[in-house]
Amino acid sequence: MFPSVPNDADPSSESRLRAWLQAAAAGDRSGFEQLYRHCQPRLTRFVLRCCGRPDLADEVVNDTLWIVWRTAGNFRGESRVSTWIHGIAYRCMLKALRDGVTAEEINASAVHEGELASAEPAFNEAADREQRDWVLRGLATLPTEQRVTMELAYYLGETCEDIARIMNCATGTVKARMFHARVRLRNVLPELGGLPRPASGTEGQT
Fold first, then answer.
1. Number of other residues whose CB lies within 10 A of the CB of residue 102
2. Is residue 5 part of a domain?
């Protein structure tokens, strides 16, 4: 259902990210520029899918990377660099949503296909558009916390333990959200694809 994507768990990728972050911590703008170019497309895509607001995505990503620049020296190496940055993005997104977006507006289906495609990293550009739109519409039916959990796990390659750090919750809570999200998607995706809704099974509630 979800495409497998490369992630920053690869040792060589993590080494590059740490080198760029250390350079940024030392005030090296060229190092930060490399980090920015690597992270910005994924962060934009993540926020777009979670809140469906291109204008908000730009604000959140800019705020996130500004914080990364200012606090690069605070990274203690207790997680992957990408996990640390995703945590900052998640908190910035929650703040932006609290400050001016109603629950009705948090809908990933509101993202224009062209805007979504332009925000996606290169490894996903060849993905089948029809299937991507189908899955996207399914994700849009999930409660926000379930949708963010699925995005972090399946599109950003974060582990349950890392998602727990990012979302500041227990690992068991992450697993429960993933379970209920899968149940809900099994119920709604066939219907979104023009098939009858499954007769049995219950949708996830938490």
1. 7
2. no
